[in-house]
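Q: Given only this backbone (323 positions), what sequence would you predict?
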């Protein structure tokens, strides 16, 4: 869903501050946010792949307020924000909620940032902000107001796209930008769910630990030191898991399988082609999300082209998730 389409009665702006910063691996940094406003942030039940937007300040400049003093947003809030001038406008980037918990005095929200070296001449304000973040830094979190969610509210309107529709077998596949979402999903799966989860990360040092009560087989795929190109290991692993290798024609579709795929746009396109055209998966019973695009700043289809474009081997700071 594009930012302009987010329903204003469900999505609001929450003032928050950094409570803690922790490096998980060389490429993953966890930032914990808190504040009184987060008391009503969230959704009923598990957060799954809940996406939020962070309004981040331009270094050295305070953010202009977004919405009403209480954080309510109108239907055209994104266009209104675009019309603002820098430096007060700041930057909006999309991320996945890694964890949301109640603590003494309120609630805390964890967001895992992917930190990459940035190619010369290319700005990455979100990655740079995360790399320099310290406790007390102020941000605005744009996400669901739990008290505004009713029985008629669509999950997609809150920022959740995970919808297995009763499937007992799942296929989860994503690059490093999808690791937080896949990890969150796995942690809430029940024991009677089976399948595969493939998580591609830059290096073996980025391999993490995910616990799940389910029977899903979790496989970490490290591009280094294997020397693999981006998306290569994901494609190979999905083909092998579904027995597609060497079978150009469609195989018998599995109506009980639900696929959730999120990664760089080119990787997602390739995986979608395999899963829909070859494996016979119903695209209406699966989720394919371009979390970012090589050569663009920002999130997925909402990214803006970089000028000059990066080389295919460049590692760019990018964001996690998008509405």
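A: Predicted residues:
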């Amino acid at each position: 869903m594009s930012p302009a389409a987010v329903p204003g009665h469900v999505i609001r702006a929450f003032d928050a501050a950094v409570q803690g910063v922790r490096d998980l691996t060389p490429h993953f940094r966890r930032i914990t946010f808190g504040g009184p406003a987060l008391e009503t942030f969230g959704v009923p039940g598990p957060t799954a792949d809940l996406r939020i937007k962070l309004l981040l300040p331009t270094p050295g400049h305070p953010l202009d307020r977004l919405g009403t003093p209480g954080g309510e947003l109108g239907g055209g809030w994104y266009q209104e924000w675009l019309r603002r001038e820098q430096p007060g406008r700041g930057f909006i980037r999309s991320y996945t909620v890694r964890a949301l918990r109640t603590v003494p005095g309120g609630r805390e929200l964890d967001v895992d940032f992917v930190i990459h070296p940035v190619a010369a001449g290319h700005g990455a304000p979100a990655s740079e902000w995360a790399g320099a973040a310290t406790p007390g830094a102020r941000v605005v979190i744009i996400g669901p107001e739990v008290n505004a969610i009713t029985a008629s509210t669509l999950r997609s309107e809150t920022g959740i796209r995970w919808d297995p529709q009763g499937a007992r077998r799942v296929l989860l596949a994503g690059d490093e930008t999808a690791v937080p979402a896949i990890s969150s999903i796995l942690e809430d799966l029940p024991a009677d769910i089976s399948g595969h989860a493939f998580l591609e990360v830059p290096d073996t040092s980025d391999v993490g630990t995910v616990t799940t009560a389910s029977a899903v087989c979790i496989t970490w795929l490290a591009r280094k030191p294997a020397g693999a190109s981006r998306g290569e290991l994901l494609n190979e692993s999905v083909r092998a898991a579904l027995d597609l290798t060497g079978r150009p024609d469609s195989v018998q579709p599995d109506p009980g399988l639900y696929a959730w795929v999120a990664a760089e746009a080119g990787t997602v396109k390739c995986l979608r082609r395999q899963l829909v055209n070859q494996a016979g998966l119903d695209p209406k019973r699966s989720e394919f999300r371009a979390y970012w695009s090589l050569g663009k700043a920002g999130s997925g289809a909402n990214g803006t082209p970089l000028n000059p474009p990066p080389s295919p081997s460049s590692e760019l700071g990018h964001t996690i998730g998008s509405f």
